[in-house]
Design a protein that fits this description.
283 residues, alpha/beta, Rossmann fold, eight-stranded mixed beta sheet, two-stranded antiparallel ribbon, 18% strand, AB_hydrolase_1, AB_hydrolase_sf, Pimeloyl-ACP methyl ester carboxylesterase, AB_hydrolase_fold
Length: 283
């Protein structure tokens, strides 16, 4: 099935970009939400694998990928981005979905579970839980806020490999592909992040304010099929938090990736096998 590009309007008129892979309408669709410094491009392989069997949609938040940039960076606050996701779900008739959420996308899943529980059929979390280690939060902020303006894709790949947490599942070509999903050439010919670098201060920085009780949000998923892809070397999602999540949800399937940091690319063989099986099991 050929993917199609979709453009939606947020409530304030800003453009939201999405990719849709058509599929059977009698099964729950898959909604893919990226991390705060990622885009919908991360889910192209997943969408292609499941196209035809069920509908798959991947979104770019405002300020990311091909979605519009906001004049006021306060527009990137988490509650505004989550509202955009809910509005996009309504516009695209995604009334009950299997939600695959990487990092911030997983936080969105928890919020949707609390706000509109009937909208979710199942949730797959990628390296995110109800506790975020403060040091890792600062590292994410540092990465989001940088525009190294690199001269070539190869130079960008070298820079990203040096600054990104470990992804041992990627070989040289894998890092180039991962980098091409992270940076894009600008009008100046240099490679820039595919997100507005002002995002971090609103999405997870001090301007976002004190975070809510994420354990209560995690609890909102209690009646749903749930799985976790966990990078065992992740400094954002610690082993102690994963253990607490397992205690709260003994039925949660966990795929642990040794030596992998935050966040797994979902191109790892173990992650692909676990995600595909989880999605296939949902009605």
């Amino acid at each position: 099935m050929t993917a199609r590009e979709v453009a939606l309007c947020a409530r304030d008129g800003l453009r939201i970009a999405a990719t849709e892979w058509p599929g059977a309408r009698d099964r729950a669709a898959v909604l893919c939400l990226p991390g705060i410094c990622r885009t919908r491009l991360d889910f192209a392989a997943l969408g292609a694998r499941h196209a035809g069997r069920r509908r798959v949609v991947a979104l770019d938040y405002i300020g990311h990928g091909d979605s519009a940039r906001a004049a006021d960076p306060a527009r990137y606050r988490p509650e505004a981005l989550i509202r955009d996701v809910l509005d996009a779900m309504a516009a695209l008739h995604l009334h009950r979905v299997v939600l695959v959420g990487t990092s911030f996308g997983g936080l969105c899943a928890m919020a949707i579970g609390a706000m509109r529980p009937a909208a979710l059929a199942a949730v797959a979390l990628n390296d995110i839980g109800p506790e975020i280690a403060p040091a890792a939060r600062e590292a994410v902020l540092d990465l989001i806020g940088r525009d190294p303006a690199l001269a070539s894709l190869d130079e960008a790949a070298s820079w990203l490999r040096a600054h990104h947490p470990p992804l041992p599942g990627l070989d040289e070509e894998g890092w180039r592909a991962f980098t091409a999903r992270t940076f894009a050439p600008g009008e100046d010919g240099r490679w820039h992040p595919r997100w507005d670098i002002r995002i971090g201060q609103q999405a997870i920085g001090a301007a976002a304010g004190k975070p809510p009780d994420l354990w209560a949000f995690f609890g909102a998923l209690r009646r749903l099929p749930l799985m976790l892809v966990w990078g065992e070397a992740s400094t954002l999602l610690t082993a102690a938090t994963v253990a607490a999540m397992r205690a709260a949800r003994p039925d949660m399937a966990v795929t642990a990736l040794p030596g992998t940091g935050h966040a797994p690319s979902l191109h790892e063989a173990a992650a692909i096998a676990a995600l595909d099986a989880f999605i296939a099991a949902q009605p």
